[in-house]
């Protein structure tokens, strides 16, 4: 798309209200565009409409009019979650109208260099961690995007002395054209959001758009342990800075000694490991002992590696990273400790919306686990969970559309205690019942872990709501 100023006097449609839609509508209106905002929700469900109309922005609620998109429309900005199959988007593409997400608009107005962070798992943790690392080093970060503050809102406040640290979803990236982050990080790729993308090819291609406009002056931070991430190397024009838990890198951030069979001590004892950075001149800098990283779980070691690589690229000295890496305690709904009751520890990992995220959570504990899982059915078979269920889990309590599928995986793993909680009319009551069943199955020294391996939308409006209901149920035991 063009710069927003070039849409002065032209018709622009914003599809979807919510916070990002409101902010991008304001940006384009301020630039002089004739903005119409459309949302299929009824007017009483769109409290933002009055605010926009007071500014002179047209708002249409209650459905998508047939004449919403016409040859006179110069740009369509859609909410990232709206599928490309809806009629207004299809009509726009047929007419050759550019279809973008808010990220693209924000990029054109942002004076600060951008750090873009994406991946199937760990985005929010890594983005928050990077923000704190840069803040501690005095680099004035602004954290925005999929993590909270709409990017178009934050972009208006940014200046060249800031770093814009942006969490990005595949939905957001799919709708970009010119977006070019100075530092782009791809954490991992797992099978997820296939209902939206229609398959892994489109999902991977959407993630890869993070690197599409980078040049040799930019940096791509890649997970060297993820084969899909490595497969993108031939298509990346930027300097590549890898991170790895399993390899010693010529240049990059990695664990010494690496994980894996070669890193085991006699008798299976784990060696002491250190996160290190080897720079372009071949000098190696120690960053932090792995055991001192503030978040539990091997996957959080990976997040720490990525955050360190990003921060170093942004100008933070490696010897300044340890205090924040060790003091950071994570983000709500991401392996969040809730409480200990009768010797049983309860953890909220509601953000685990795919099997890979749940596997990573299961491998974070040595104690026996009672797992609460299940949710929206996106077509996965959950076979990926079988090894972790067999090795780490003593019982499962299942709910949601996928409860039978995950039960089948649990049976294959040899579990004997498999409880299916019937979905009642009240989703909160169903999850509360699941917590009570898990507490009944658990013994002192066990972990009760909510890690659904599924999105929440079959029962709850968001994973946040699901996680908070879980925490309330634990506190009410």
From TrEMBL:
<keyword id="KW-0963">Cytoplasm</keyword>
<comment type="pathway">
    <text>Cell wall biogenesis; peptidoglycan biosynthesis.</text>
</comment>
<keyword id="KW-0132">Cell division</keyword>
<dbReference type="InterPro" id="IPR036565">
    <property type="entry name" value="Mur-like_cat_sf"/>
</dbReference>
<dbReference type="Pfam" id="PF21799">
    <property type="entry name" value="MurD-like_N"/>
</dbReference>
<comment type="function">
    <text>Cell wall formation. Catalyzes the addition of glutamate to the nucleotide precursor UDP-N-acetylmuramoyl-L-alanine (UMA).</text>
</comment>
<dbReference type="GO" id="GO:0008764">
    <property type="term" value="F:UDP-N-acetylmuramoylalanine-D-glutamate ligase activity"/>
</dbReference>
<dbReference type="Pfam" id="PF08245">
    <property type="entry name" value="Mur_ligase_M"/>
</dbReference>
<feature type="binding site">
    <location>
        <begin position="119"/>
        <end position="125"/>
    </location>
    <ligand>
        <name>ATP</name>
    </ligand>
</feature>
<dbReference type="InterPro" id="IPR013221">
    <property type="entry name" value="Mur_ligase_cen"/>
</dbReference>
<keyword id="KW-0573">Peptidoglycan synthesis</keyword>
<feature type="domain" description="Mur ligase C-terminal">
    <location>
        <begin position="333"/>
        <end position="454"/>
    </location>
</feature>
<keyword id="KW-0547">Nucleotide-binding</keyword>
<dbReference type="InterPro" id="IPR004101">
    <property type="entry name" value="Mur_ligase_C"/>
</dbReference>
<dbReference type="InterPro" id="IPR005762">
    <property type="entry name" value="MurD"/>
</dbReference>
<keyword id="KW-0133">Cell shape</keyword>
<keyword id="KW-0067">ATP-binding</keyword>
<keyword id="KW-0961">Cell wall biogenesis/degradation</keyword>
<feature type="domain" description="Mur ligase central">
    <location>
        <begin position="117"/>
        <end position="311"/>
    </location>
</feature>
<dbReference type="InterPro" id="IPR036615">
    <property type="entry name" value="Mur_ligase_C_dom_sf"/>
</dbReference>
<keyword id="KW-0131">Cell cycle</keyword>
<dbReference type="Pfam" id="PF02875">
    <property type="entry name" value="Mur_ligase_C"/>
</dbReference>
<keyword id="KW-0436">Ligase</keyword>
<comment type="similarity">
    <text>Belongs to the MurCDEF family.</text>
</comment>
<protein>
    <recommendedName>
        <fullName>UDP-N-acetylmuramoylalanine--D-glutamate ligase</fullName>
        <ecNumber>6.3.2.9</ecNumber>
    </recommendedName>
</protein>
